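== Sequence and structure of one protein ==
=== Format: two labelled lines per protein ===
==== Data for this protein ====
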Amino acid sequence: MNRRSLLSSAAAVAGAAVAAPLLTACGSSSASSKGGTSTKTGLQAALPSYVANNSLKADIPSVNGAAGSSTDPGFLSYPATQTRTVSGVPGKGGSYTAVTPLWGTVPNPGNSFYQAMNKALGVTLTMKPADGVNYATIVPTMTAAKKLPDWIQLPTWWNPNFNVGELVGTQLADLTPYLSGDNIKQYPNLAAIPTGAWADGAWEDKIYGIPSFSSGFALAGTTFFRQDVLGAKGITADQVTSADDLFNLGKELTNAKGGVWAFDDVWTYLFPYFGVPNKFTVTDGKLVHKYDTPQILEALDWHYKLAKSGSMHPDALAGNNNDGKTRFYAGKTLIAGDGMGSWSLTDAQAGVAANKNYRRGAFGVFAADGKSTPGVFLGTNTAEVSYFNAKLKKDQIEELLAVANYLAAPFGSAEYTMVNYGVEGTHYTMVNGVPTATDDGKKYVQQQTYPFLATCRAVISNPGADQVTKDYAAWQAAASQHVYKPVFLNMNITVPQRFATADAAQAVEDTIKDCYHGIKKVSDVQAAISAWKSSGGTQLVQWYSDNVMAKYGTGQ
């Protein structure tokens, strides 16, 4: 029941778009709109003050990293005593509706957990979870009819589908007067959310969204390995300090006749180590798209050679990613790229079920050439933001903000336990110090709904699997020293509809995928990039340069 397991499941249905984009490309904006983008000074004035919550001491404290990052604190056990952070009930008896995405079975509307939550919150909050797989089409139907619920979760990777840049200020309420600066201090649990996460719900110098599942150290993923298998061979992560080291390790580990290949797919989370930017970089004051960098060609050349080396599993080369974890657990592949959500208790349990010695490890951040300064770009501080309906009155907004403050209570608190596990004896029981779901808990609580409206900052907690928490926390601490802010980090940007195809660049991305699977050559990618540039790519970059960088900066 943590951010990483949630995002892992979400990524399974939403694809790489969950982790990859740092910008949002929405439909054409109205004449009066600035396109969603905030100015640096305007955003700073609107952002809520940050006040850390120190109600519970972490077993593994957060570490301050580069670029203002801070790692997630680690907890090796669930607090035996759950401290209360909210006095009384936050609500005043109001009735509201809420819609969140759900990748699972929708609970019965009047179930015991929803009833208990309404009592704890002091409101009647009617939860209406919608199918997460089809959420991108469900929400636009609501907005077209102007029939949004009182509270709705809009995952940021679907901002283009929802056209959020047009909804703010019209259908979505402005929360700036309630949350900006020290105003947020009347909601202390919300004030403890990392500042960068609030920027993900900021549009045109105003705060509209409430973050969920936020982190002070957000990376999309990394390159993992079977630490138990490699460790038995005397191989450790610190022995890999370049792409050549990794390539040669692949040859050493592969035994095709024995059904073992070193690699599954690694491109998605390895390409940054070659110096490839997330989307843009700035060179000599000029905005440059990643497609125009020599680094992407170097990265593709290495991955093409890897695909042809015989060290990649045939199913990975065929694009069969659905069974990637199964191959990894079974030891058929030993090195694989994956989202950070895969480093979790659930992963450990699945891995140990396949091999009792299973242990996940990850290579550190290294420079592909083995000489340059290692670096990897940060991701947005959250990918989930909830919004209030603009039709709500002032007293209703204040009531729902008080509810959000309850939902955002820190890890291990009484409120957190209620939101994530329900009522003791009904929805969970304590087993070896760990809240463990009953049958009703599995049906009603584990099908998460409330956390999509507001949550505390992420923590690393895997009760019963201390080694996972220690390994992940140690990796974060080391990696945090090598992160940097990418261009336009945490900036919501509305791209004109005429550039939507160029911004998605699907033809180029498809060719890149074929290249790192050994189907097409680097020259084919170069040809696809040339076609992209002539069919709108060059104009797109100029638009970003003139309308975003020149006016609002790079967000770095």
